[in-house]
Structures are given as C-alpha cells and as structure tokens.
C-alpha cells in the first residue's frame, strides 16, 4: 500500500487558537473552480447563502435551501485540501427549533462535507448554538447586519450605531460565545463596537464591514475580483479586475470563431495525415 502525503486541512480548533496570535483570512466560495484557486491562500472558506445573490442573481439570500447549500458545500470541499470549509445555514432551516437546526446542520456536514455551520441571530438563537455544539457541530455565529433579517432591519443598513443597539449586539455576541460558538462574524457594525467586542470575547471575531481590530476578515470573493459589477461595497476592496480579463477572453474567442481561426485541425480528433 502506497502512502501519499497530503496537506492537512485547517481545523476549527486551529481557527480558535489563532485568537491573539495571527489574523484569520477568509473568503466566500460557491463553486469548485473558484474554491480551488482560493484554497491555498486562506484559512477559511465560507459557503455563504450569499450565493443566492452572487450566483443566482436573486434580490436577497432568503431563497436558498439546505439541499442547495449542501450541493455547493460539497463542490467546495471536493475542490480544496487546505482551508476550513464552513457552510451557511439557510433561512428557515434552523429558526423553528434546535432539533430542526441539528437535522439540517447534520446534512451540511454529512452530505456537504463542511467542518461547521454559520447561523445568523442574536440571543434568541444562543440556545440553538449550544444544542448544536453539544452534539458535535461547530458553530460560527453571525451578528450585527444579518442579511436573513433584511425584512425586519429594513434593508442592508449599518447596525450598532446607537448606544442601545450597540449594547444589544454586544449581548448577542457574548451569548453565542458563552453557548460555545467557535467564532462570530461581525457584519456592518460600527467600528468602535467591533473593536470592543473583539477585546471582550475569548473567541475569534471575523469582520466584514466592522473593524481592522477584528481577529480576522472575510469578504465576498466576487467583490475582490471585480466580478460583482460596477458597485463595490464600502467595506470591500477590489484587488483584481478579473471581470475585464474574462470579458476580453470572451471577445477574443468570439472573434476567432467568426474569423475561422479557431478551431484549427490541431484541436480536432481523427485528422488524416493528408489534411
């Protein structure tokens, strides 16, 4: 029997141990080709329900299902070897009861291959976090601006901008930490609040539109690659313009087809020598 050396995937305990030691770099991934390219560079890949908007051109994240999330997660896991893969719990898959949450989270781990799940919600969902963690499912909490709460929040608006709102978000983050979450995503909240939460919690905070002081950062990959259109979120930065490269490649291909310079016989099968 031959023994093959293989890079070990980043584990949830390793992410927790990064607190205070080094920054955690995370990105979203929904399909195998992108996940394969990101894998070596980052510590964590989030199979986010944001694929509803990014991959399916939906207006929000609310239409994703557990089956869809499991399929995307499985593709990302199969394409990667290094990054810890966390899958989003889609809207309606965990709010009804802890038992419902466990059944669906178990699907994301067993069928989707994820190493843990992310769920959105404040103190009301802390019991669900505890229920999952006690049954072997790592949980990444998500507080602040929560896309699944778009209807109650009145849109995608920055959160924690008043003293009362900041206190509530701090309490939300503390509740999940006490329930056993291995980390918490802080999205779209005031910078001083994100800094305060990071200092107060014993678990890593992953910021997106939060603060440089967070223990890690996550962005939607398509935003940093220039694949999300002209509008770039305030909290994001375009690190490359892959969109322009893809557009030019498509133009060059189409021109080659029309000018009959592609394909050539070298691209064909069964070509006779006299040809």
From TrEMBL:
One of its GO terms (cellular component) is cytoplasm. The keyword Metal-binding applies. GO terms for molecular function: 3-methyl-2-oxobutanoate hydroxymethyltransferase activity; magnesium ion binding. InterPro entries: Pantoate_hydroxy_MeTrfase, Pyrv/PenolPyrv_kinase-like_dom, Pyrv_kinase-like_dom_sf. Its cofactor is Mg(2+). Mg(2+) binds at residues 49, 88, 120. It holds the Pfam family Pantoate_transf. The active site is at 187 (proton acceptor). SUPFAM superfamilies: Phosphoenolpyruvate/pyruvate domain. Homodecamer; pentamer of dimers. Belongs to the PanB family. This is 3-methyl-2-oxobutanoate hydroxymethyltransferase.
């Amino acid at each position: 029997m031959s023994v093959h050396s293989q890079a070990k995937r980043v584990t949830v305990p390793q992410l927790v141990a990064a607190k205070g030691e080094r920054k955690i770099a995370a990105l979203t991934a929904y399909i195998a080709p992108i996940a394969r390219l990101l894998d070596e560079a980052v510590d964590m890949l989030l199979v986010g329900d944001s694929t509803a908007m990014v991959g399916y051109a939906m207006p929000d994240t609310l239409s994703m299902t557990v089956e869809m999330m499991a399929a995307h997660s499985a593709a990302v896991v199969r394409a990667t070897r290094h990054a810890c893969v966390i899958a989003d719990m889609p809207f309606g898959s965990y709010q009804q009861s802890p038992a419902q949450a466990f059944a669906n989270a178990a699907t994301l781990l067993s069928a989707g291959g994820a190493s843990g799940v992310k769920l959105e919600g404040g103190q009301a969902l802390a019991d669900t976090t505890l229920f999952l963690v006690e049954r072997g499912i790592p949980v990444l909490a998500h507080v602040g601006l929560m896309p699944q709460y778009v209807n109650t929040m009145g849109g995608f608006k920055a959160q924690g901008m008043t003293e009362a709102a900041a206190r509530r978000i701090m309490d939300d983050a503390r509740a999940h930490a006490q329930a056993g979450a291995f980390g918490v995503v802080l999205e779209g909240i005031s910078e001083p609040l994100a800094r305060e939460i990071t200092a107060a919690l014993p678990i890593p905070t992953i910021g997106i539109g939060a603060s440089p002081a967070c223990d890690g950062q996550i962005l939607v990959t398509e935003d940093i690659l220039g694949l999300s259109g002209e509008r770039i979120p305030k909290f994001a930065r375009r690190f490359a313009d892959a969109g322009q490269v893809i557009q030019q490649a498509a133009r060059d291909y189409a021109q080659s087809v029309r000018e009959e310079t592609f394909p050539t016989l070298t691209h064909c099968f069964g070509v006779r020598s006299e040809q």
